[in-house]
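Retro notes - structure team

What went well: the batch runner handled both jobs without manual restarts.
What didn't: labels got mixed up in the shared folder, which is why I'm recording both outputs here explicitly, each with its sequence directly above its tokens.

Job 1
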Amino acid sequence: MQNTPLPDFSQSQLLVIGDIMLDRYWKGGTQRISPEAPVPVVKIEQMEDRLGGAANVAKNLRVLGCQTGLCGIIGNDEAGNAVSELLKQENINDGLQRVNGVRTITKLRVISRQQQLIRLDFEDSIDDNNLSSGSAEQLLASYQQQLKQCDAVVISDYNKGALSQIEQLIGAAKQQGKAILIDPKGSDFKRYAGATLLTPNLAEFETVVGKCHDEASIEQRAVELINTIDIDALLITRSEKGMSLYQRNGAVKHIPTQAKEVYDVTGAGDTVIATIAAAIATGSTIADAVVLANLAAGVVVGKLGTASVEPAELQTAINQQHNLVAGIYDQTALLQLIKEHRKSGDSIVMTNGCFDILHPGHIAYLQHAASLGDRLIVAVNSDDSVKALKGEGRPINNLQDRMTMLAALACVDWVVSFNEQTPQQLIEATLPDILIKGGDYKAEQIAGYKAVTDAGGEVIIAEFIDGYSTSSTIAKINNTAEL
């Protein structure tokens, strides 16, 4: 995840369908123990309602800036009125079906001194016995109507009964070519066949595939599940161990947790799937979307209660992550960084050059290189090496200045120097996944080609932008000085 601006989520339209809930928070001080029972007495001073369940996913999307629609079932009751009012305040397109005889699912949390003391749940199972005639059909019709305008669908399953027609929901979305992201529940994931991505936590995953005793068994069963239920990818959230993404194409990516202090995990899963959906709807790959979602989860667990992540908070998290690791390194430190990031599944891109006077051609080239993987290494010729290659009078800028300017670029992660005329030894030590070089070469002529390709990597030749070079820049300066 480079230190780059967030996508413009306002250009995307998402549709959420699933089990709707109302999260209630009663807060107050605790001064004494009840004489009736050994429990604290809480003097309620503040009452707050928040959207929960699928509605919280929709709220997360709206906070990110996405245009958002919501489908589901609520009761014709006071809690249902509260849900509708909150949706109106958030400007979420309300496609809910209100059903007599069903209570809106409500979770009441009593909190004192920033600690949750108790949770009380009010709910009825939703099934054919208590749904009014045609409610399920009306829900499906509302979903299909909103489906036409959306870029991606999020199905938020809390196993409360609103998704009895999930096969039809998935089928309709697939028919229209929509990405389908599902937060699953239960022991049978076959009902989610054909989805783009499932996001179970580790316990939910093991409920379906059985207990996994090591990383190898998790990966094996993840791949088997992907093939069995015909999905594109599986994201397993693993608490303090972060997340693991398994894709149909065989790619595996482990993302370490970003939370500095866990305050409350309520709704963190909703934030994860909402962020992934928003990113995919704006053109991100699944892998990049998951990295972004992991940062969002790290923010939201630091808040109390059902919460969302503001775009500015997410941008700050991106910047902080980049700044913690970006910079100038010697070879020993660089190799350690590469080792740690490969554990997380990051792909490493490497390029090299003198970069004597930075110009727009360099910037475009480095931005392209960065887009090819997760981390970009720029290897820089030492001053003696530049002199040997370019002649007397070069470099114009010394090594430290050149490296400092490169490290300041958002697209560059790590900068390292080498003394030889080519970075052959450095490339053999780092073995990047992708080695890229600009210019009129054949790939086989590039220093490090054999080492990289023998290790399963790729060597790419990129074209420079015409009209830009350090030599031409120096010539312009000299011509100007003569005038």
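Job 2
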Amino acid sequence: MDIQYDAIVIGAGMAGLTAARKIAETGKKVAVLSRGLGTTNMSTGVIDLLGYFKNELVINPEEHIKELVNTSPYHPYAKIGNGDAKKTLEILKISIQDFLEITNMTYAGKTSQNVVLSNYFGTFRPSCIVPISMLHGNLLEFEDSKLMTVGVPCYSEFNAKFFSKSLQYVVNSFFEQTTIKEIVSKDIMIPSLGKDKEITSIEIAEALDNEELFSGFLKQLQKFVNETDAYTVVFPAILGYKNWFQNHQHLEKELGVQVFECLSLPPSVPGQRLQQILENAANDVGVEIHRGIQVLSAHVENNECKTLETVADIYRRTFTADVFVLATGSFIAEGLYFDGTKFYEPIFDLPVRSDSKTDYFAGKRLESGKHNIGFTGIITDETLRPFDLDGKVLADNLFGAGSILAGYDYISEKSGLGIALTTGYIAGLNAVENL
């Protein structure tokens, strides 16, 4: 049985859901096909545009993206602007503003200014567009700060004492004109979760969505803040699952101090919040999200993709559409594979480009810096249409987006969700023009 849509997007992460939403906003019938939740669900929940350039920390992403576009023609930022840095920055700003609007401004940031956030180990990571609940965690703005770090007993992923010592050392040692004057750690029990078993960040966040439990949590915090006279209170990423924004605002109002969450480990509550924001925005414009569906192959004829063959459980179905977006991710999401001798893309059998023909991997297991395999992906033209084996566009109605694209290493650059967002946005707009 054929199932007909105007557009089909393969992949339910940041790139796929953004593309699907932009197409559906024009009134088209759009489906997203996904085997699971997407890697955005496991992310830190922050939008990195460009965190490092030439191994140096980036403070102003716009400045270095200009240089990147001018020097790296295969980079996705260069592709979306067709080599024009000014056009790339315009697209970047428009897509970011579009994203901020669907979050109801629960995210903040600007393309000309990175923030530097701490993770659970007390070390740091640059990012750009971040949840409001993390905004006061910008290490570049710490000045004689007096912090209180809050942990939860039986939540072993975050050790408040270790985090405090590590963060104080990092800030005072690596950042000029920023200091932590004093940092103390406190543990707060959440009675409903007990004290005899391991608990997860998701369990804590869901508990703090409960008004009564959150009220008890706040009373304990008020006592500790008064005792320590802290200027800022630091949490792991646990301040609620659905009500995180309201909880954060309420804490700052009632405690009278700044409050921030730090970057978490997977499974990531902020990543799941972000995934829900993206899905809600897509649902609001009529996108149908189908999970548990594996796309096996595509039928391409006369330079046009016709159908997708899929399987869900034991049932095979054919999906038909006028336009398609491939946003299946890189190796982690299994949008790309390496069989020991060659790379391949499993649905359309697209050629995969790597910057190195022989040395794909780093010489050392934990070697820092860029790895050649990170630049691996599919090659597209400036409209994000993938090339076939002959160097020609495979199908006029197929577009690629997100980490499946070649020409950049999102891990070393810290540009992952930024590129997913911008390429998903452009792929969606280009798909609409093809309908």
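One thing worth noting from job 2: The first helix runs from residue 14 to 24.
We'll revisit the folder naming next retro.
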